[in-house]
Amino acid sequence: MIAVIGLIVGIALGIFLQPAVPLWLEPYLPIAVVAALDAVFGAGRAILDGVFDDHVFVISFLSNVLIASLLVFLGDQLGVGAQISTGVVVVLAMRIFANSAAIRRHLFKA
Amino acid sequence: MAEDSPSGDAVSADPVIPDLAARRGHLRQALALRATRRQAIIGILFVLLGFAAMAATRAVGGSALLATARPDEVVRVLDDLTERQARLEIEQRALVVERDRLLSGSEEQRLAASRARVDALAILAGTVPATGPGISLTIADPNGAIDYSVILSTIQELRDAGAEAISMGPVRVVASSWFDDVPDGIGIVVSGRTLLPPYRILAIGDAATLATAMAIPGGVSDIVRAAGARISISPQAVVVVSALQPLVAPQYAQPAASPGAP
Q1: DSSP letters for B119-142
Q2: ipTM surpassing 0.90, yes or no?
Q3: What are the TM regions of this chain, as residue ranges (chain B) (predicted)?
Q4: What is the DSSP string of B14-80?
Q5: How would you classify the pairing of strands B199-204 and B130-140?
Q6: Is B24 on the interface with A (CB under 8 A)?
Q7: In chain A, where are the structural domains located?
Q8: Does B49 touch chain A (CB under 8 A)?
């Protein structure tokens, strides 16, 4: 419940405050958002599996965001930033699909 | 990474799946609102997630289009712009032609141009009074030491320095002006009129340039002083050259059609 409320509050803040993204953050923000989404889907699946642990969730959320951003940063420094962002997004999207498939099976048995 | 549970499509085959009721129980438990520190942290994380998602959406929607576009998209955008520029250039050329037609075709415009031309010629010919910045030059020559060549040099020097209208005493100095000495006595003959010292010369032009031209070493000032006369130069913000040269219709010369004139 707290998650839903938090999400709504965050979206509302984003819409009403219209934040200007600093230039140095611009390449990392979308990746970080996708990484966080991966953690959220993983958490949803863990809840249904009955193995959800909020400690694990917080750690995985933060480490996901951090590692994804670090990867992109490293890629930028190596000159392959665009490719690495694409790779990270592809991997994260695959994980999100896998997790959402598991959630779907749990909820709808299909 | 997200959870320590296995991921992938093989999950449904997991033999330890709890029954549906148990799963609903987990869900209900997870959705329950509990005021613990960890719940608060999770809430904050989700606030951040929503905020960041909105911020990222906004950033991508704006000017970041070119920064994130693929090369072929950028090429297409560039092509569009080039094509549009070509169209606009054609339109611009048509509009320029139209504007030129209107400008040259306008009676008022032609009248104004003619008036400006008449003014310039009248000042050149000395048929109208002229005013503007310039210098006032006085040569005091009580002994008659100054002859016409000095005055002529002075006039030439003033013209060299860009003087646009010059008068000497009551005589306007124009293209046809001439200078001579009075046969026996003091004075200068200018265009047939005898002037007695002190000679007062007014010149319209850039005051500083004219004054400098008069004062150059070995120039007019030095010559006049060497001859034993006195010269005083005063730059002025406004000089009025009111002496006029009567307009004489040329007796022999006729305007010839010049190829450059409209």
Answers
A1: HHHHHHHT-S-EEEEEEEEEEE-T
A2: no
A3: 40-61
A4: -TTPPPHHHHHHHHHHHHS----HHHHHHHHHHHHHHHHHHHHHHHHHTTTHHHHS-HHHHHHHHHH
A5: antiparallel
A6: no
A7: 23-108
A8: yes
Q: For tokens 């917080």, what's the residue?
A: A58
Convert B14-53 to b/e letters by CB count within 10 Å (16 or more is b).
eeebeeeeebeebbeebeeeeeeeebebbbebbbbbbbbb
Q: Choose among B188, B123, B114, B127: nearest CA to B152.
A: B188
- Give the whole-angstrom CA distance, residue B167 versus residue B172: 4
- Three-state DSSP at B163 gives coil
Average pLDDT across each block of 10 residues of chain A; the chain has 110 residues. List them in order: 79 78 77 90 87 85 91 85 86 92 85
Rounded alpha-carbon distances, angstroms, from residue A18 to A4, B34, B69: 21, 31, 23
Work out how many CB contacts closer than 8 A connect A with B: 166
CB A80 within 8 A of CB A21: no
pLDDT of residue A97: 93
On whether any CB of chain B is under 8 Å from the CB of A8, the answer is yes
Q: Is the Cβ pair B53, A50 closer than 8 Å?
A: no
Phi, psi of B237 (to 5 degrees): -70, -35
Structure tokens belonging to residue B225:
């002083």
Q: Which residues from chain A sit within 8 angstroms of residue B45, using beta carbons?
A: 6, 36, 58, 61-62
Distance of residue B82 Cα from the nearest chain A Cα, in angstroms? 27
**Contact criterion met (CB < 8 Å) for B27 and A51:** no
Pick from A31, A21, A26: nearest CA to A69: A31
- B112-153 pLDDT, tens per residue? 888 888 888 888 888 888 899 999 989 888 777 888 888 888
Q: Which two tokens stand for residue B108?
A: 């008022």
**Tokens read off for A22:** 């600093």
Q: Cβ B46–A60 below 8 Å, yes or no?
A: no
Distance in angstroms (rounded) separating the CA atoms of residues B85 and B159: 50
Provide the H-helix boundaries in A1-110. Answer: 2-17, 28-49, 54-78, 81-108
